[in-house]
């Protein structure tokens, strides 16, 4: 297979482009379950290998029956695979064998179906072709009899179902390997609900299969030439899979998720029963907007709550009739650690400044590169990948698909892997991106994600994210970059616009007024008269400035305090230079040079002056002021730039609350800076 074709197949697999979202099984699907007469009450509801081993260790006949069943289904495949190895035709017959695996796995029941789906996004374990075929696994199987389902409902409720529900559909709305769903209405309040009934003998079948696979893994550990840790892989996956078996836990996950989204993203719904259409199939005009909401939603999970919906499937994203995004199925969630959340933001900050040495270290922390690996051979490869990705206009314009493809290619040749949690992230982004590109070919997922990242950097109190924000604006050199500051603030404004459009409580509360500042009368400061006429109308300004002047911007103001002091110092000296020029004193140095010096004291050094470094600071101030006041009465006109002193004059009336806390520190730092400069210039 050509390398480009292999990469293309791999990216289709990572992005989940072959995921099936049908509601029912194909006609030829037959599900094999382990039916036992004994009670399963001793089987754990939380994954516990020791308890499972103890239960099935006492039932060798049932285990042997399942092994015979497995061998009868897989025997022909294993013999053909062995012949491929002997005849060195593994690569040649790879596609055919992958198709066979999919068909076998489908028939073996829920454990193998779910395991196959989990492996279908693991390029570090499977070949691209095998990934593609396993993603075609259909989790939908024939429904079990309705009378059995009704009996299970009544057993669980402890009473006839019609005591709880005024109506219940006579047949399931959908059926999958773990259970099937009926549509009902509660007698208590008339609410429509989804009634999910677990398939009989699922727990028995899943646990006996895990028992067999895990024991096989223990045997394989004796062979060092087999690098894949089957036991570790099974334990990692089974712990999460057991959560899907616990419907009570699934309900709790949905409640937790709904509460986390309610404040900032009420346009995202998680509820009992939702009418709507799949977002991927909707032709409504607001699909693009809902995709953007989905991007923010998944970023909030990824970088904020750490409670990640781990089944980002096209069938789980619904557009409701009133134009909201509904997310379904919370049986499987992944919890991200703070190290993973902060590590990804730190990596983005390093990427913005092309600090590839730091990115390689980030990848170790994020589990892309194993601990102890020599990073020197990987660094130039990653540098080349990121240089190519950044060519099109910086980090915001990165083509995520191409970048992921290039990173995936590294897994073929270097000790570089795609961690399971990040594979789920790629799939989530791929699903959303695929939907968006249908209606907007220019959709750029990274560009859409940047506003949320900016918001996290500006509002999070974590020391790690504060350092990441400082690095984003100052870079490796430690020099303030006005363009980068403006870039972050513009992205923050885009986030405010997107989130406010959905009516988030926080944003429509404390931040609803962003964009307008009202001047008050009674505040004046002396200033030099200019040719700019007095402006009397209220200041209309950007959300960025309103944020900086609000309580929410307090942490960021503290962060920028040194730059504020530098700006005030330089602007003041620049005004003094202009005053002297206005008075006709364009060059006072010869006059002051006539004043005798007193030892090391040089009176001429007291003259206000502007150095080249000061000019850079002044230019930064003008850029920032122009940006923050864009669209206001004091913004740039066609023939004159922003007058910084006028801006200060107009903004002072809205600063009394801030000045009480910030002004003393500003004056303290400003006096220290001025004194240090005087001592330097007059005595040294």
Automatic annotation (TrEMBL):
<dbReference type="InterPro" id="IPR050154">
    <property type="entry name" value="UbiB_kinase"/>
</dbReference>
<dbReference type="GO" id="GO:0004672">
    <property type="term" value="F:protein kinase activity"/>
</dbReference>
<protein>
    <recommendedName>
        <fullName>Protein kinase domain-containing protein</fullName>
    </recommendedName>
</protein>
<feature type="domain" description="Protein kinase">
    <location>
        <begin position="167"/>
        <end position="486"/>
    </location>
</feature>
<dbReference type="InterPro" id="IPR000719">
    <property type="entry name" value="Prot_kinase_dom"/>
</dbReference>
<comment type="similarity">
    <text>Belongs to the protein kinase superfamily. ADCK protein kinase family.</text>
</comment>
<dbReference type="InterPro" id="IPR011009">
    <property type="entry name" value="Kinase-like_dom_sf"/>
</dbReference>
<dbReference type="Pfam" id="PF03109">
    <property type="entry name" value="ABC1"/>
</dbReference>
<dbReference type="GO" id="GO:0009507">
    <property type="term" value="C:chloroplast"/>
</dbReference>
<dbReference type="InterPro" id="IPR004147">
    <property type="entry name" value="ABC1_dom"/>
</dbReference>
<dbReference type="GO" id="GO:0005524">
    <property type="term" value="F:ATP binding"/>
</dbReference>
């Amino acid at each position: 297979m050509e390398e480009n074709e292999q990469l293309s197949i791999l990216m289709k697999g990572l992005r989940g482009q072959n995921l099936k979202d049908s509601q029912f099984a194909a006609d030829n699907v037959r599900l094999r379950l382990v039916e036992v007469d004994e009670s399963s009450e001793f089987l754990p509801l939380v994954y516990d290998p020791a308890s499972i081993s103890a239960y099935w260790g006492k039932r060798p006949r049932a285990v042997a029956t399942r092994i015979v069943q497995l061998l009868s289904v897989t025997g022909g495949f294993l013999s053909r695979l062995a012949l491929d190895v002997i005849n060195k035709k593994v690569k040649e017959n790879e596609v055919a064998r992958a198709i066979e695996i999919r068909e076998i796995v489908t028939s073996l029941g829920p454990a193998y179906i779910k395991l196959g789906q989990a492996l279908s996004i693991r390029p570090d374990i499977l070949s691209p072709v095998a990934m593609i075929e396993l993603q075609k696994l259909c989790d939908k199987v024939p429904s079990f009899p309705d009378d059995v389902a009704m009996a299970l409902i009544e057993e669980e409720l402890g009473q006839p179902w019609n005591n709880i529900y005024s109506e219940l559909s006579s047949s399931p709305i959908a059926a999958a390997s773990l259970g099937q769903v009926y549509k009902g209405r509660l007698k208590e309040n008339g609410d429509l609900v989804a009634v999910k009934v677990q398939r009989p003998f699922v727990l028995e079948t899943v646990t006996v299969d895990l028992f067999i696979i895990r024991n096989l893994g223990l045997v394989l550990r004796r062979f060092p030439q087999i690098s894949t840790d089957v036991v570790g892989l099974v334990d990692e996956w089974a712990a999460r899979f057991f959560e899907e078996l616990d419907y009570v836990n699934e309900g709790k996950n949905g409640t937790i998720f709904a509460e986390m989204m309610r404040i900032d993203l009420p346009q995202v719904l998680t509820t009992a029963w939702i009418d709507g259409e799949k977002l991927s199939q909707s032709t409504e005009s607001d699909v693009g907007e809902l995709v953007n909401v989905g991007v923010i939603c998944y970023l909030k999970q990824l970088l904020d709550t750490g409670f990640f919906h781990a089944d980002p499937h096209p069938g789980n994203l619904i557009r409701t009739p009133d134009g909201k995004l509904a997310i379904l199925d919370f049986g499987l969630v992944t919890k991200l650690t703070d190290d993973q959340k902060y590590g990804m933001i730190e990596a983005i900050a390093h990427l913005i400044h092309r600090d590839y040495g730091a990115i390689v270290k980030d990848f170790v922390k994020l589990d892309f590169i194993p601990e102890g690996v020599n990073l020197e051979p990987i660094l130039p490869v990653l540098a080349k990948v990121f240089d190519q990705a950044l060519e099109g206009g910086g980090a915001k314009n990165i083509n995520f698909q191409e970048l992921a493809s290039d990173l995936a290619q590294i897994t073929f040749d270097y000790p570089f892997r795609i961690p399971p949690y990040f594979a789920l992230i790629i799939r989530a982004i791929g699903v959303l991106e695929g939907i968006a590109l249908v209606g907007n070919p220019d959709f750029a997922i990274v560009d859409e994600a940047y506003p949320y990242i900016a918001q996290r950097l500006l509002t999070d109190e974590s020391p790690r994210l504060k350092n990441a924000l400082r690095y984003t604006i100052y870079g490796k050199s430690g020099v303030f970059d006005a363009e980068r500051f403006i870039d972050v603030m513009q992205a923050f404004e885009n986030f405010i616009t997107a989130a406010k459009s959905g009516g988030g409580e926080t944003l429509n509360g404390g931040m609803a007024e962003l964009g307008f500042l009202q001047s008050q009368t009674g505040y004046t400061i002396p200033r030099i008269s200019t040719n700019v006429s007095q402006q009397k109308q209220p200041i209309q300004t950007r959300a960025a400035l309103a944020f900086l002047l609000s309580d929410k911007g307090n942490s960021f103001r503290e962060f920028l305090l040194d730059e504020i002091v530098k700006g005030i110092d330089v602007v003041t000296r620049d005004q003094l230079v202009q005053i002297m020029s206005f008075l006709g004193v364009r060059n006072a140095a010869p006059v002051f040079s006539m004043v005798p010096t007193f030892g090391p004291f040089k009176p001429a050094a007291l003259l206000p002056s502007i150095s080249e470094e000061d000019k850079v600071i002044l230019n930064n101030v003008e850029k920032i002021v122009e940006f923050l006041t864009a669209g206001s009465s004091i913004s740039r006109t066609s023939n004159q730039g922003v007058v910084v002193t006028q801006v200060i004059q107009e903004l002072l009336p809205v600063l009394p609350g801030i000045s009480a806390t910030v002004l003393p520190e500003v004056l303290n730092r400003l006096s220290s800076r001025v004194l240090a400069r005087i001592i330097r210039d007059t005595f040294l």
